[in-house]
Amino acid sequence: MTEWIMNNLTTIVGSGAGLALLRLGVAPYVKKFNKMHEMLLPNNGSSAFDGIKRTETKVNHISDSLQMISAEHRAVMYLASEPIFKTDALGRCIFVNRAYQDMVGLPAIDCLGEGWARAIHPDDAERVYSMWMQSIKSETEFNMESYKMLHQKSGKVSICSCRATITRDEDKKVLGSVGVVIIKAQI
Question: What is this structure's pTM?
């Protein structure tokens, strides 16, 4: 096996290492796969296999760290006292925190996709949805100072403002958006 790796090191570095990182889900966090070549060459080791083992250990550590950060991030967002939401690149809701659910009187599952729009007061629904979609298409920040949200169970109306920012990967590709709703008053 080690002999095969030594004989095929260029192929492994050229495609396999990058593909392995991609499959592990850490590719967005590794700036250049070209650095893999340096990592795989013997360095304080007796063979290319030692370099591969060191690289595997580093990749596993990065993957574990990213999973921990992601879990902590989700917990903070869920526990925040302000209504927070996340969307995918097409503007479809993929997450709402507990405060958001309380504000609109809907469980998280009913807010997903375009379900969040059900809680916009009918007087403002067309305007808010139109501005939201324009923000998504133009890949710009969403900022709306005043609109009404309707609690789906109690019928209470909240006057809100909302701000959402676009999230991007290191290649500037849009991943989605993260936003917060501020309740200004309840009428």
Answer: 0.62
